[in-house]
């Protein structure tokens, strides 16, 4: 699929969209084709679901041939960029490296420059950050500003640029180049009048050039703008700078950036990780990937009970020594309800001694959050993320910190992240898991019964942990009769409970809530014989649950309810030969919901 050889390519999205192939500018005239390429480049090296691409290209009323048209556009783009665009079963991915996409080169220079700051080599840092700043052009991808999927990424790029620009301009002033910085500061400060670090840098540069009145006037303009637009006052730090200039004491030797912004009372975040699981077993490849992954953000996804949080906490303990400013797990849901990002930020900032009670606007609070993280090395575990936006708001603006995200959803809208998908454990991992809980001799002594349980109920870590806890309490009984008992009972879900942890309760919290957006589709799955479904069978059953069946399948894959159980050689043209699977016990629960008195009718369930 695609060309055998990809041509030499360079793409620019930090300004107008531009593509150069073998040093010649490529002409991409069709508007939707240009938009498709812009979206893929904004999310380079990440899979964008076909559903999102169709919505972006055609809006709420796509033509009946939208999927075919999308394939035609992709085919046309491949004639320009080669086989860098690939189909991944549920969406498309454009592969690029730092030499092929200006955004990736910008990010690399930013990381190198900030690393040089931490090592104390300020001239090198200023040079590398300056190279990154010079790559930015006025209003990136302005022709696509009406497309939410592009506009959101441009907003993120702009925030990254401003953070890098602030680091660079403060270094330039510290190195005595305040005269040279004023030209760019005049332009950037006018475009972003609420950025306090930029305002502080301009005030400092003006003061050092002997233009005190202009420096004081800039502060007054900032104060009026913040009051009118956000209803807040300038921060204490910039007010202190104003008073220093007003007293003609001269500005501080270093412009107050993130490092200087720390009040003396700020405490260290410290290691706040919950205890590691003593009998953690399996996932060796995944643990190794997280430990060796250079990306600052790793997203760990999988269905309910896949062990996402256990893996993240286990790896966080192994990584914690690399992050001297602290490590913490932040639950993004409370009692199943998503937590507002501003509440999370406020809780953490107040816990380290920062006074944020007077910060009323969410944007202003987010700025304090990013400034606090900017020069620290912190490990954040964002647990059970409900959606992409809940994660984006909490991500640091710099790459000195590390973030592990867990979610049942794939969070495909997040870009520039490493992804690890968790399925069931392997049979050998399951045997090792149970052996650590109930003893190797007991497992080895009745291995056929153990394997029978695995085949019928799956190998998710949650199921195995609950099973192991039950078996440990029934130490006097052999495993064979216990397996028979599981096979005989009608309410087998109730057998998977230990203490205050119940599989049924976990399913009810996740799948049974009437407001859950996939509830109708989940009920439809319960009407089918499962837990493995053929493509055509599944699409037919899911038609009429709110959207066309193909889209519903994609949404269930995104939500982690379904997984692809086998992938044909040419997934793009042979999607009909795919089969999908769900957890056997989740399918039991779906069947119970379907058969219940409040279930919507979706046909007769096969038995």
From TrEMBL:
SUPFAM superfamilies: C-terminal effector domain of the bipartite response regulators (SSF46894), P-loop containing nucleoside triphosphate hydrolases (SSF52540), TPR-like (SSF48452). The keyword DNA-binding applies. Residues 1-96 bind DNA. Transmembrane segments: none annotated. Keywords: DNA-binding, Transcription, Transcription regulation. GO terms for biological process: phosphorelay signal transduction system; regulation of DNA-templated transcription. This is AfsR/SARP family transcriptional regulator. It comes from Microbispora cellulosiformans.
């Amino acid at each position: 699929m695609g060309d055998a050889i990809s041509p030499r390519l360079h793409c620019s999205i930090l300004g107008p969209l531009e593509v150069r192939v073998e040093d010649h500018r490529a002409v991409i005239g069709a508007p939707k084709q240009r938009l498709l390429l812009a979206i893929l480049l904004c999310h380079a090296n990440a899979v964008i679901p076909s559903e999102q691409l169709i919505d972006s290209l055609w809006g709420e009323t796509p033509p009946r041939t939208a999927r075919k048209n999308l394939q035609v556009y992709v085919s046309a783009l491949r004639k320009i960029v080669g086989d860098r665009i690939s189909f991944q079963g549920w969406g498309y991915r454009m592969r690029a490296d730092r030499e092929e996409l200006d955004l990736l080169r910008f990010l690399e220079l930013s990381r190198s420059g900030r690393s040089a700051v931490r090592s104390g080599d300020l001239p090198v840092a200023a040079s590398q950050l300056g190279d990154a700043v010079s790559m930015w052009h006025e209003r990136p991808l302005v022709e696509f500003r009406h497309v939410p999927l592009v506009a959101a990424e441009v907003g993120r790029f702009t925030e990254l640029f401003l953070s890098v620009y602030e680091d660079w301009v403060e270094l330039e002033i510290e190195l005595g180049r305040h005269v040279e910085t004023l030209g760019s500061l005049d332009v950037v400060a006018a475009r972003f009048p609420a950025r306090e670090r930029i305002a502080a840098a301009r005030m400092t540069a003006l003061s050092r050039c002997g233009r005190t009145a202009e420096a004081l006037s800039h502060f007054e303009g900032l104060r009026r703008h913040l009051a009118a637009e956000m209803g807040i006052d300038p921060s204490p730090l910039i007010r202190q700078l104003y008073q220093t200039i007003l007293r003609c004491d001269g500005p501080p030797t270093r412009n107050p950036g993130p490092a200087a912004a720390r009040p003396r009372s700020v405490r260290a975040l410290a290691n706040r990780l919950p205890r590691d699981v003593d009998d953690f077993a399996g996932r060796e490849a995944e643990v190794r990937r997280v430990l060796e992954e250079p990306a600052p953000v790793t997203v760990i996804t999988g269905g309910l009970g896949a062990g996402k949080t256990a893996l993240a906490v286990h790896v966080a303990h192994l990584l914690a020594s690399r992050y001297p400013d602290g490590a913490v797990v932040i639950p993004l849901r409370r009692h199943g309800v998503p937590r507002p990002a501003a509440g999370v930020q406020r809780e953490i900032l107040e816990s380290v001694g920062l006074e944020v009670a007077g910060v009323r606007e969410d944007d202003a609070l987010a700025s304090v959050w990013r400034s606090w993280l900017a020069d620290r090395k912190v490990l954040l575990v964002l647990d059970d993320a409900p959606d992409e936006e809940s994660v984006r708001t909490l991500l640091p603006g710099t790459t000195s910190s590390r973030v592990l995200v867990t979610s049942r959803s794939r969070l495909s809208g997040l870009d520039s992240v490493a992804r690890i998908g968790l399925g069931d454990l392997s049979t050998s991992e399951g045997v090792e898991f149970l052996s650590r809980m109930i003893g190797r001799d007991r497992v080895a002594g009745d291995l056929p019964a153990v394997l029978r349980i695995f085949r019928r109920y799956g190998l998710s870590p949650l199921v195995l942990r609950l099973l192991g806890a039950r078996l440990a309490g029934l130490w006097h009984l052999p495993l064979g009769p216990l397996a028979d008992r599981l096979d005989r009972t009608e309410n087998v879900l109730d057998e998977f409970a230990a203490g205050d942890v119940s599989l049924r309760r976990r399913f009810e919290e996740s799948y049974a809530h009437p407001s859950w957006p996939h509830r109708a589709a989940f009920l439809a799955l319960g009407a089918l014989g499962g837990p493995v479904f053929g493509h055509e069978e599944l699409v037919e059953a899911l038609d009429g649950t709110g959207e066309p069946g193909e889209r519903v399948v994609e949404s269930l894959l995104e939500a982690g309810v379904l997984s692809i159980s086998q992938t044909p050689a040419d997934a793009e043209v042979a999607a009909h030969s795919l089969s999908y699977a769900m957890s056997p016990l989740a399918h039991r629960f779906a069947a119970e919901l379907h058969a219940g008195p409040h279930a919507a009718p979706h046909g007769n369930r096969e038995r």
